[in-house]
Each structure stands twice: as structure tokens, then as C-alpha cells.
Amino acid sequence: ADPKYLRAMRLMGGFLGALPNFQVRQHPQAFQIKIKSHWSWFYLREQQLLLVVQDPTHLVAKWCNRLLSATTELCLGNQSISINYLHDIIENDTYSKLDHGLTKSDINPKDRQNFSSCLKLTSNDLFNILNATAL
Description:
two-stranded antiparallel sheet, mainly alpha, 6 helices, 2 domains, about 5% strand, 4 strands, elongated
């Protein structure tokens, strides 16, 4: 992303900075948001003029890249998952490709722009298998 756009988004959201001549939170069209107190990981001021979100395609790609990382685990609720779980599901005789839709090429960490693989990695069928095998 263009650094100018990122800076503008950060300033409008009040994240690590503010606009000196424009008080975003005091704008007449600003709206009120209440964030749950236990969401300490989620930064958002209570008064916002606008919200900036990333498009779904890039969100799914980031989620998949995190999942396919060899050094990290992805947290899903209170559980965590790593690429090793996906290898186990593919190799497990209990589940067929018809059950999960995955192939070894879908979990190739070098192919980070394969959106069809990202869709398979976010499928309900795979989530159901992961929930069924959760420890």
C-alpha cells in the first residue's frame, strides 16, 4: 500500500497520531462506537468519523499467509493451528480430499498469492474437520 494512504488512514483513525488542524472526533458527523473492554487487542477510538477496513481478498490472503507460516501458529478463539495440522489432515486416511478439498500444493508456503487455495483453507468443511480434531 502507498505510505501516504496508510498515514492518512492512521491519522483519521487516531492511531499513533492526530491531525493538528482537524479534530476528527469532534466532527458533527462523527459516530459513537463502544468496544468491549476485554478486546485489548482492538484499537478504535469511541468517536469515529469513518472506518477503514481492508478488502476481503487481502484479509483472506493475510490469514492464509499466517496459517502457512512455518514459524508461527494462527489463533482461532482459544485454539491454535499451524501448517502441521493441515499436513496431518491431508495425510490422514480418515478424511479424503472430498472431505476437506485440500491438496499438498494448497499448503505450499511459497505460493502466497494462490487465492483458490486460500478459499479452500477457509472452507466450512476444513473448519468442521479442525473443530472435530481439536485437542
